[in-house]
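Q&A log
Question type: sequence-to-structure
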Amino acid sequence: MSSRDKRILRHPILPEPEVREVGFTFNGAEFTGAEGEAVSSALFAQGIQVFGHHHADDSPQGMFCANGQCSQCTLLIDGVPLKSCIVPLREGMAVKSLEGLPELLELPGPDVRPPVEVSASVLILGGGPSGMAAAIELGERGIDTILVDDKDRLGGKLVLQTHKFFGSVADCHAGTRGIRIAEMLETRIRGMDSVAVWTGSVVLGVYSDGTVGVRCGDGFRTVRPGYLLVATGAREKSLPFPGCTLPGVYGAGAFQTLVNRDMVRCAERIFVLGGGNVGLIGAYHALQAGMTVVGLAEAMPCCGGYKVHADKIKRLGVPVFTNHTVLAAHGGEKLRAVTIAGVDSSFRPVPGTEKSWEVDTLLVAVGLDPVDEFYRKALKFGIRAMVAGDSEEIAEASAAMFNGRIRGLQIARELGETGIDIPDDLHEKAEILKSPGGRTFPYRPPVDSREGVFPVLHCMQEIPCNPCMTSCPKDLIGTSDHPIMGIPEYYGGCVGCEKCVAVCPGLAVTLVDFRDSPERPLVTVPFELGEWLLREGMEVVATDWEGLVIGEAVVRGWKRAAGYGKTILVKLETRPETAARLVGFQVQDPSDIEPLEKPLPVPLPDDAIVCRCERVSAGEIRKHVRAGIRDLNHLKALTRAGFGACGGKTCTTLIKRIFREEGVPESDVTSFTDRPLFAETQLGWFSGKEDGHGRE
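Response status: OK
Response body:
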């Protein structure tokens, strides 16, 4: 079967990738995939989302994180059990499901060289925005640095982000797409003689002798760093509800990996759980990929992400249900439907508010946990170490870059470099960029004009962003408040260059033009969902800044905004009284996203699986908590929760949540003992081979 069957062949932002197709087998059947993509992505491209069945209860197994943090996607790859989301596809691979009871496997030793030990002044774990920013600061000062990342390229989550960044144009590339920022930073690092880049390399442990173990493509290396910087990012949280482990239910980051990195059309109809920036952006990325987003649920009274992110998906026709949560995911072998309900002030479901939709994908975006185990181990073993980016504090990538710069400078100073000044405004900007969004102001009536040309700024929340101000060639947009967090204002005198419309990361600036026709003015709106959706003369349903329908508009042309990364500027003809309120138009037909006539029956909450690896339910955990268990290690012995291949990375937060729900203070709970290794590895990697039979 061709690997193009489930590929995204056209995308409004991403070019069609140039790939070399290679053959592989899955459970004996022959397929082709793109060389170097994750094995899990190659399977998704064939429409295969069920990777096997769990030995405990025969439940279908698929994928959740796509980042090597859980073990949900483990498969036998050339006879070795591996996480398929981080194994690159190669010609002739034999891939099989893990079916039946676990058994001891006789495996050939890995064909690698004997271990080597190297030294470096600085070892950076993680090639995301903070790790790269730190490497640049160190590299510019000639400090020998090793930058390690388990992916085939640097960038971390930047390589998944097709949207334009917020923040400051001068300081963190605001108005530039994340994918482009990743390329820019990697190019700088690759040109530095003092920075060695180890991609495709997995950090396995931080050891008591002061070394760090790294599994590279050609063997095992131990690095003795003068300083260790842990910039390993974050892992996605989950939420226990019946059906939460069904294939088709996975993290928003996993979805972005499939769609934006590997360009796999992994879904048709999607529901999103979580109204933070990750969930809102995930919904937007689904729309860009041509998928239907039937809704988004957020348990709080308002979305926690930037208002402009929420507004732009509402304008495109995505319903947002605040004060709602997911009750259940329904399906047999894979997801078929989802049910949500309203919640009260204590977040308890309100009977009678249930709604169900037929979907094939549920994106879970309910927060992130720092990946900081290596940092804690380093402190325990007396290794000089710092932590940066999401490993220290969950924030936006712009903040992570500033944080990485600061850490790089601090480490350089700790290593004895002289003349290093860390400006106070660097710390101040880093703090500003961490802001999840400040005050939201009431909508300001737009300019009450029926003549000339002028921009309308539909931005009512304090967020760290200034591209509209810095892009205006005549300095006609500014703020009377903070230069980055302040609400932008238009001062008058517009010449209609449209740069503010093109650059806005939140797609929240329009240009109203009465010059040619006072009776039928033109409104220029930004659009990033593809020219193929537009047609000259087509009538569209016009919406205001929050998605409220305000009437009709007619497409009178469009163009690509030169220099602004494939943003399209669409000219809509409309009525004078709605021109200044018009911000966008619906792309989803409301009839396609209607819920089912009757909600589906919902299983009991105790049926929810908390430990994915060992299939331990919330009810089983709750029973032992009520019996007085307060030590997670004791709980592990009783239930096997935390015993699985992921090492408790995905279930620990959920188990602690149950303790809180049962009224047990966190101070009374003893956490799991950390596992020594981060990723499963054959023992042969630690010793190397002396002959062809794995004998030393």
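Response note: The two ends are 42 Å apart (CA to CA).
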